[in-house]
Specification:
This protein has about 290 residues and is mainly α. It has helices spanning about 1-45, 45-55, 70-80, 85-110, 115-140, 145-160, 170-180, 190-205, 210-215, 235-255, 280-285; strands spanning about 55-65, 260-265, 275. The longest helix is centred in the first third of the chain and has 42 residues, at about 1-45.
Length: about 290
């Protein structure tokens, strides 16, 4: 009887030890290995996914037409006859997609945002050309062809009438490189504008497809383009936000990443830009700080 009790006690002790070991393994698996698993999942996020998390807002700044008589006179001089219509088609229609295309690069090319910013400060002229290539291809496929025609005529007119700051000594790319190596690449409308308008003119001459332009931007994922056209009776500030929302919706339909847009206007015709921003930066901009 005593021997049996000893055996029972040994079995009981062994059972307790096994239970303790089992609980210990459970705890280790759940709370220790589980954390490692979470870290592993975090590490396996793509750079695009990390960019979307770190920079959940995308600011687009669009120039107004003629906020003052001085700027209106300046714009009329650059754009010629029917300057307001041409200005709006360029900046509040075409250039909106140009700025959103920088967002395609930011969120769809698996490029670390800080590394991209550093690269842009040195070689932004190369990205600008690719962005113009895409924006021209986009509107040629999806836009009102009368507006595309007006856009091309406008760019051709401006390029032929603006003073060449290189006196014909540099190509567009060479001049772009020179601008980006200077202290202030977009110092004046005439200098930076000459580069941009020539870049758009070159994009028309290249005549790339949307697919080709996307590939040149660095998008490697397969995209499925739709065929829905985007038509707007009149281009002005009242439809600019519509152009933005329609285009972002189209990008997402193709399978591209994009985030929330923060769109603002600026009275300076030389101030049109876009940038991926953090939540803190967004809140600061909204509060006016």
């Amino acid at each position: 009887m005593e021997e049996n009790n000893k055996k029972s006690n040994k079995l009981a002790i062994i059972g307790i030890i096994l239970i303790v070991l089992g609980v210990g393994l459970f705890v280790v698996n759940k709370f220790v290995l589980g954390e490692d698993e979470k870290e592993e999942q975090k590490e396996t996020k793509t750079i695009d996914e990390q960019n979307l998390e770190l920079y959940p807002y995308y600011i687009v700044v669009t120039a107004r037409y003629g906020a003052t008589q001085e700027t209106k006179d300046f714009i009329n001089k650059i754009f010629g006859d029917n300057a307001e219509e041409k200005f709006r088609v360029y900046f509040q229609w075409y250039n909106v997609v140009h700025e959103l295309t920088h967002g395609i690069v930011a969120y769809n090319t698996n490029t670390n945002m800080l590394e991209r910013d550093i690269k842009y400060t040195k070689e932004g002229y190369l990205e600008e050309q690719k962005v113009n290539d895409f924006a021209v291809a986009y509107w040629k496929k999806y836009g009102d062809q009368e507006k595309v025609k007006l856009l091309k005529e406008t760019v051709d007119y401006i390029v032929s009438n603006m003073k060449d700051p290189t006196d014909g000594k540099l190509t567009i790319e060479e001049y772009g490189k020179q601008l980006w190596q200077s202290d202030n690449p977009d110092s004046t409308f005439e200098e930076y504008g000459w580069f941009q308008f020539n870049s758009v003119k070159m994009a028309f001459e290249k005549d790339l497809t949307v697919e080709q332009a996307l590939k040149n931007l660095g998008v490697t994922k397969e995209v499925k383009l739709d065929e829905e056209k985007l038509s707007y009776d009149k281009i002005d500030e009242t439809v600019c936000d519509k152009v933005i929302s329609d285009t972002v919706a189209k990008f997402k339909k193709w399978g591209l990443n994009f985030t929330e847009i923060y769109h603002v206007y600026n009275d300076d015709p030389n101030t049109n830009y876009s940038k991926a921003i953090t939540k803190g930066q967004y809140e600061s901009l909204k509060s006016g700080n």
